[in-house]
Write a structure and sequence with these properties.
Blueprint: E1 9-14, E2 23-29, E3 32-38, H1 50-54, E4 69-71, E5 90-92, H2 95-113, E6 118-121, H3 128-142, E7 147-148, H4 156-165, E8 183-187, H5 191-194, H6 196-207, E9 211-215, E10 228-230, H7 237-250, H8 256-262, E11 263-264, H9 266-273, H10 278-285, H11 289-301, E12 305-309, H12 311-314, H13 319-332, E13 342-345, H14 352-357, E14 364-365, E15 369-370, H15 374-384, H16 397-405, E16 411-415, H17 419-422, H18 426-435, E17 438-443, E18 455-458, E19 467-470, E20 475-479, H19 492-502, H20 512-522, H21 531-537, E21 539-541, E22 567-568, E23 587-592, H22 608-613, E24 618-621, H23 623-629, E25 636-641, E26 644-652, E27 660-664, E28 677-680, E29 687-688, E30 692-698
Parallel strand pairs: 6-7, 6-16, 8-9, 8-12, 9-10, 11-22, 12-13, 16-17, 17-18, 23-27, 24-26
Antiparallel strand pairs: 1-2, 2-3, 4-5, 4-18, 14-15, 19-20, 20-21, 23-30, 25-26, 25-30, 28-29
Helix pairs in contact: 2-19, 3-19, 3-20, 4-13, 7-10, 7-11, 7-13, 10-11, 16-18
This protein binds iron/sulfur cluster.
Domain 4Fe-4S Mo/W bis-MGD-type: 8-63
Family: In the C-terminal section; belongs to the prokaryotic molybdopterin-containing oxidoreductase family.
Protein name: Formate dehydrogenase major subunit
Length: 699
């Protein structure tokens, strides 16, 4: 950890991992980050979790890309490159040569097959300015909207439901607002591991008497603090939530005045819920009717209640329906727009909120402005000083890889994403990447996706660059460069700028602050937030109503940004998971993160402390299930689905139901997504990562 005098310089920035957005102080000595401490940011008040505190030394790892690389003639594409010796498949190139090759290949496809033959995956790990420039490059440089990022794999269904029913995709209240709540529901989320600093506020809330209702098919860590832990059957979310709401209707516990003033479609919601009595639903949900009634009374009877949710809600083919139910529950109890109340999807990546706000999605321009709207496109054409571009919504992450298989998309620019690990049915994704005519990958390491690249562009890590990021609370914060990138690596915005120039675009930026200033012209969410202000105060919550206003922690107290200021009830019906267990694949597979590792593992598995704590691919099963198979905890099991199989170490965990297996997805040697089902939610286009039929045997 180092002693307090053991550094030359101290630089304030933001943790690069989860959407909590903890502010950090980086202690720098001899051009390296030596250790990290929490500072008093609005979301963390000095706190950090193990990732923020110890997960920084990946930036100094010998695997860092330090020079541009070009694939050697004839080198086979596949997961076959040793990141410590990429020269078997790639040769070093100058920046000029690599940028010319990268842009030249994409321009050739555009000019031969049309702009829609090229697609882009941007990153929620980059800054707002970088996300903005990336979507602008695809739209302006290729004339269409085939640009997306990992929000598609995370909260796309939540955003679809929020946009539809509330009129805005962001949280209605910060998570810190739980301080003013009497009751809170946490459903389909495991904040103790995935949003650890937010979880500390949830625990404190219970210490001062707040009622915490946790609902999850896994007995997640917060259960020890819960007044009720509802470990419902996987996939039964809609039936459970509808049953809770049916009690509120039946016992007239709803907030009549709020419903009349601020909502629409209440009557049809009410009628729809009549069939979902707790007694009718208890067997299906696996939760006794009496418990469902108690929870309904607890939530509806409180003065102020909050609802938090994570990917256990969103990553289903009925993910949008799950969120519709949560929105309806908040609306019928009047729990939006007042202290201690609100809807809060816990966002995953450090800048997934900001990257989405910046337009890194195929159906929306910045600030969720509809790309099919001529007026909106016209406004951006003017800001960009360019002609019109396609009015057609672009393809999403998984649709883009399907279009590669179909031969429609022939080239890709991938910045900071790792679809060769992160996409469902990853064998299919890897085949798509291998079949591309031209793939440009820009990253800090030679990721699994970079194994398939034609040109690799070495980028700066988060602590090596300047830019803004927006956390789950809508807090726009400034990240500052503490150290220089290794070798010839460059900041992402500067690389995208060079590619744009080579694609014939007249872009001129010398600093991210100029990009931020351009963003403000098309994004009213950034009103009253300037680069200088962020430099001075570190963070401003949007919306900010004046240059002095620190921003609105709670929104929609006086109505919603949709028709006549009213939010909407959208009734949700029960839809079975896409692939249910059967005799051949009798168990349920669910995937997620672990406290120590982040997403595809490229950063945290190269962080000494984190890798030492959690070094090995693993899955968790109920001890009784392991016993039946004759496997000791720590022994090996084989997991098979209709898409493939993996073998890995099994842990015993009593919190897992006997017919379930929990599988973290950070380990390339036993990649979870070899097994997952690519079936999509029809609205959010999010894959069903949380449910697949699996066979588990001793290995
Ligand atoms: Fe970083 Fe999230 Fe941990 Fe905070 S809670 S230190 S943002 S990983």
């Amino acid at each position: 950890h180092g002693d307090s005098r053991d550094f030359d310089e101290e630089v304030k920035s933001v943790c690069p991992f989860c959407g909590v957005g903890c502010q950090v102080s980086l202690k720098v000595k001899d051009g390296k980050v030596k250790y990290v401490e929490g500072v008093n940011g609005p979301a963390n008040e000095g706190r950090l979790c193990v990732k923020g505190r110890f997960g920084f030394d990946y930036i100094h790892h010998p695997h860092r890309l330090t020079k541009p690389l070009i694939r050697r003639e004839g080198a086979e594409k596949g997961l076959n490159v040793d990141p410590s010796n990429p020269f078997t498949h790639f040769r070093e190139a100058t920046w000029e040569e690599a940028l010319d090759a990268a842009a030249g290949g994409l321009a050739h496809l555009r000019d031969t097959h049309g702009g829609a033959s090229v697609a882009g995956f941007g990153s929620a790990k980059c800054t707002n300015e970088e996300a903005y420039l990336f979507q602008k490059l695809i739209r302006q440089g290729f004339g269409h909207n085939n640009v997306d990022h990992c929000t598609r794999l995370c909260h796309a269904s939540s955003v679809a439901a929020l946009m539809e029913n509330v009129g805005s995709g962001a949280v209605t209240a910060t998570f810190n607002e739980i301080e003013n709540a009497d009751v809170a529901i946490v459903i389909g989320a495991n904040p103790v591991e995935n949003h650890p600093v937010a979880a500390t506020y949830f625990k404190q809330f219970t210490k001062r008497g707040g009622k915490l209702i946790v609902m999850d098919p896994r007995g997640v860590g917060l259960r020890r603090f819960a007044t009720h832990m509802l470990q419902f059957r996987p996939g039964a979310d809609v039936s459970l939530l509808n049953a809770i709401m049916s009690v509120i209707v039946e016992e007239e516990l709803y907030d009549r005045a709020y419903i009349e003033k601020f909502t629409e479609n209440w009557e049809s919601e009410k009628q729809h819920l009549a069939q979902f009595t707790p007694e009718a639903m208890e067997d299906f949900c696996g939760i006794p009717a009496q418990t469902i009634r108690e929870v309904a009374r607890e939530f509806a009877g409180a003065k102020a209640g909050m609802i938090f949710w994570g990917m256990g809600v969103s990553q289903h083919i009925h993910g949008t329906d799950n969120s519709r139910c949560l929105i309806s529950l908040a609306l019928m109890t009047g729990n939006v727009g007042k202290p201690g109340a609100g809807l809060h999807p816990l966002r995953g990546q450090n800048n997934v909120q900001g990257a989405s706000d910046a337009g890194l999605i195929p159906m929306f321009l910045p600030d969720y402005q509809d790309v099919t709207d001529d007026g909106v496109r016209g406004a951006f054409s003017e800001i960009w000083n360019t002609g019109d571009f396609s009015a057609e919504k672009g393809l999403t992450v998984t649709e883009i890889l399907d279009a590669v298989h179909a031969g429609q998309i022939k080239g890709m620019y991938v910045l900071g994403e790792n679809p060769a690990m992160s996409d469902p049915d990853v064998t299919h994704a890897r085949e798509a990447l291998a079949s591309l005519e031209h793939l440009v990958v820009q990253d800090i390491f030679l990721t699994e996706t970079a194994n398939y690249a034609d040109v690799i562009l070495p980028a700066a890590a988060f602590y090596e660059k300047n830019g803004t990021v927006t956390n789950t609370n809508r807090q726009v914060q400034i990240g500052r460069a503490a150290v220089s990138p290794p070798g010839e690596a460059r900041e992402d915005w500067a690389i995208t700028l060079e590619l744009a120039k080579r694609l014939g675009l007249a872009w001129e930026y010398d600093h991210p602050s100029q990009v931020f200033a351009e963003m403000k012209r098309g994004m009213s969410s950034l009103d009253n937030i300037s680069w200088d202000r962020l430099e001075n105060v570190g963070a401003v919550t949007y919306p900010s109503l004046s240059p002095e206003d620190p921003g609105q922690a709670i929104v929609f107290g006086d109505g919603f940004p949709r028709s006549e200021g009213r939010a909407r009830f959208t009734p949700a019906s029960v839809i079975a998971p896409d692939e249910t267990p059967d005799a051949e694949y009798p168990m349920i597979l669910t995937t997620g993160r672990q406290l120590e590792h982040w997403h595809t593992g490229s950063m945290t598995r190269r962080s000494k402390v984190l890798d030492a704590v959690e070094p090995q691919a693993n899955c968790s099963l109920h001890p009784g299930t392991l016993r039946k198979m004759g496997v000791e905890p720590g022994g090996k099991v084989r997991l098979e689905t209709r898409r493939g199989s993996i073998t890995l170490m099994a842990r015993a965990d009593r919190a897992i139901a006997p017919d379930m297996v929990f599988l973290p997805f950070a380990y390339v040697e036993a990649a979870a997504n070899i097994l997952t089902n690519p079936a999509l939610d029809p609205y959010g286009k999010i894959p069903e990562f949380k449910f697949a039929a699996v066979r588990v045997t001793a290995a």
